[in-house]
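User: C-alpha cells for both sequences below?

Assistant:
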Amino acid sequence: MKRTHLPLNGLRVLDAAARHLSFTRAADELAVTPAAVGQQIRALEDTLGVVLFRRTTKGLELTPEAEAGLAALRAGFLQFEESVRAMQAGQSSKSLTIAAPRDLTEKWLMPRLAEIARDDAELRFVLVTADDAIDFTEANLDLAIRWGEGPGEHEGEALESDGMVTVGRPGSNADTPIAWPGCVAEEGVALVRVGDAGLALDAAAQGLGRATVPELLARDDIEAGRVAVLGDPKASRLGYWMVAPLPQWRQKKVKTLVEALGEA
C-alpha cells in the first residue's frame, strides 16, 4: 500500500479500540460516538481485507491479524509524535535568519537587534543581505525586510516612517544632490553617485551634498546630529515592509520579533 493511501485515521481508531477493547471507551478517548468508531473499524477491515475484532461472550477480542500489526503500529505513532516534536522545536528556537537591504541592516536593523538581544541573551541572529527578490525556500529565512509598496505575495507589516527626508551635513549649504538607484529626481547635476541610500546618507554627512533618503534609514543619524533635515519630510508610496510566507509568519518567534521591531 502506498504511503499516500495509508488509512491513518482508521489506524488511530484501531489503536484506541485495541487498548480499551471497547468501542465505547475508544469513542470517549477520541471524542466521537461509538457508532463512528465502529464505522472506522469496518472501513479499515474492508481496506485491509482482514477481520480485526470479534465479539465474544466476554466482550471484544482482537484477531491474530490485528495483534500481529499492533506493535509496529504503536511504534509508528511514537515516531509520528517524535517527528511533530522535532518540527515544533523550531518554534521555540532562539535563532532567527533575517534578510534585509545592506543599508537598512547597517543603519537601522542592527542597532534594534542589539537592543532586543540585551533582553534575551539566548537570541541568535543570522543576517542576510537581500536588495532584490527574496527566496524564502532557498535561504531558509524566518523574516525579510524589503523596500516596496506592500508585502507582495507574503504576509507583512509596514515599519512606521515619515516617508522621505532630504538631509545634509549640519552647517553646510548642501546645494548639490547626491544620486543613488531609486532616489527621487532633483534639480542639479549630482556630484556623487553611490550604490544605495545608506551610502548617500554617509556622503551627505561628509558634506558632499544633500541626499533624499527614507526617513527610517536616516533616523539615527538625524538624532545623533550627523545630518540635518532640509525642509519637511515627503510622503512616499514606498516603504519598508517586514514580510514572510504564512507558515513563517505564524511562528511565535517571528511574531515576537515583528512586534519588537515594530515598536523599536
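Moving on to the next sequence.
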Amino acid sequence: MDLGLKGKVAIITGSARGLGAATARRLAQEGASVVINDITADRARETTAALRDEGLIAHCVTGDITKAADVQRLVDETLATFGSIHILVNNAGAPRDKYLVKMSEEEWDFVIDVMLKGAFLATRAVMPGMIEQGWGRVINISSRAHFGNPTQVNYSAAKSGLIGMAKALSMEEGKYGITVNCVAPGFMETEMIQALPTYETIKERALAMQPVKRPGSPDDVADAVAFLASERASFISGEVLHVTGGRFG
C-alpha cells in the first residue's frame, strides 16, 4: 500500500533510539526525508548514519527540545536542508518515576517540560509553515499511561496532556489541511525498558494484563505513526490510536 509519503519531510523528536528511531526509519522507508533530533548528540549521529547506510534520506539536528532557541534552530535547519516540513512526531520523553509524596519539584518539571512543553514548542514552530502549504501531520506519542499508573503522576499527566493538546489542535488546524493525532503505546520492548533491573517483572505483569500475549515492538508504533502521517489517514484527526495489544486500563 502506497502511503503517499514520498517527498515528504518529517521531524521526529527524541529519535536517537527506541520508538523514535524506529519511527524515523519507517517514515524514511516510505520515501520521506527524516530529521533525527535528540539531546544525545553522539547517539543521534549514529542513528542518522545508520539510516544513510541503508540508503535512506536522513539529517541530524541535536538540541534540547525544552529550549525555544534549540527548537527554532531545529526548524530553521530542516527548512534550509529540505525546504519544507510536512510531518512532526512529538516523541521526546523520559520518565522520572516515584510516588507523589517522594517526587521532587525537579522530577515533576523535567517530565512535563520534555514531553509537554517540548511538544508545544515544536508544534508552534512548525505550524506556520504547515498552514502556508495547506498540508501537515502532527502526531504526539502519548502512552497507555494516560489512564494512570502508580509512581507515574508526572508521566501520566504529561501523556494525558499530549492527548488534550492534539484534540484542541485538531479543531484549530483542520481547516488548513492539517491533522493532529496521538499514538498511545503500551508495553514496548525498547532498549530503555530492557535495561531496567525490574524488566522481567514489568514484562510478566504487562503480558498478564493484555489480551495479545506478546510484547510490543518499536516497529508496531512506527507502523501506526506512518499510517496517521499518510494520505490514507487524511480524514482522521483528534484521535488516539492505542498500540497496546488490547490493554486499556
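User: Anything stand out in the second?

Assistant: The domain at 9-188+218-236 is CATH 3.40.50.720 (Rossmann fold).
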